[in-house]
# Entry
Amino acid sequence: MPKVLAGLGLDRRQAETEILKVWSHQMDPNIAAHARPTGLRKGTLFVCVDSNVWLDEIVRYRRREILERLQNSFGRDLVARISFRCG
# Structure
């Protein structure tokens, strides 16, 4: 049974759900208001940012802080990198 569940990717999906739940509580309210996680694939968390201005702000000045907070909560294996995109 554990192999079947692992094959379905339920652990990964549960982790994605947990990240979505805690995003607004762990992040600065300004970041949470303008960016939201959209998926997690092979250690990369994909985050959609609502404007180029906020994308630039986050990528230049806040990327490391965000990654460290998520890694402290979920581990480096689950969230190894973050990819930010405008949209």
